[in-house]
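User: Run a structure prediction on this.
Assistant: Running it now.
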Amino acid sequence: MSTGSKTGFIVVLMMIAFILFGVSGCGKGSDEKKKDTTVDIFDDSDVKQTTTKNKDSLTDMEVSTNEDGYKTTEYTKDSEEEAKNCKEQMIVLSGRKSDVYKIEEDCYYKGDKYVIYFRKGCVITGDTAAAVEGVMKRLEELYGMSYDNTDHLTTYPWRRDFFGMTSYNGINTDNKRVNILVKPYEDGAEEYADDSVVLLYDKYMDMECGDFGNVIAGLARALRERQSGFMGDIFERGFALYNEQKLGREYNLADERMIQFIDANGGEDQFNKADVTGDPEGIYKKLEEGEESGNYLVFNIPYLYEYGYRFVSFLMETYGSDVVNKISEISTGYDYDYGFVDIELEIIKKATSEDVFTKFAQWLSNDWDNYISDYMDFLDASTAE
């Protein structure tokens, strides 16, 4: 074969490969080929990335590619009566990681226990909903809790604050499904999570980008808070990070952001272990109340995360995962309108023991380093790949 014929043949093969595999990349179109594999978080009995036939979830379909290389966006009619006045359409997702969509207008995707709202400009993959479903199912399994628990929902006006009151009119107005708000990373937005809302950037939705831990943390917090309402910054943030670590290992995520909560800036400037072990209950209370103590601002947000991460890890290791259910059940009988921090401490002690903070100080001094070293080795290996 002549050199010219070989070149032509190679070009044809490249064009065929592009048509077959489309574009890929971490949150946006890319010329680099990306592995199209089934991720471990999917339960193969319910969801397949290649052929999905879940009547309330993903659709088995062929997806065409537009001239920019993104998959052509298709929509379907929302069968629920509440959606009849909604101007935004319900998007159809293929279920395949290799299919990349550029969202051209605000739209939404509805599952049994969640609604994902995509803002114009988002870049997502066809398995986005399946990934969310996998995490929610796993969290429910771990704790015996359900997203269907709607007895303690707050009335935060997320629709007004994030989209405008006329957006997504009629969709999930009772918040019985978790609202997952996805915005383009370039837009910038404060990350947020409570019992009804999880606000995320589009790039977080791709497991291969290393930011998927944000999705796990947000969904964990939504699940916990739906059981009894808000239990304070330390506990809620700690529970979110604990599950980001736990599920991150299960799914083999290269979650670099977790390092900052373990060894901030390579030192103890964000988390002074000696201060905490000296007065663990007092520091907990001061952190929640936003007072200043010692050589740091105790209302510093990273410090809240770091204390919470260690404290919830200690609770899980010492009392087992059922401690979360006990705390949730006990807290439903309290009025949070006054003296909240003192009530929070009382709830934790009732679910564990009167000397729980003394035990925490001992665990932090004697066991934390061993507990976290294995996870740090995992992070070092996974982020180096």
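Residues 3-21 form the longest helix (19 residues).
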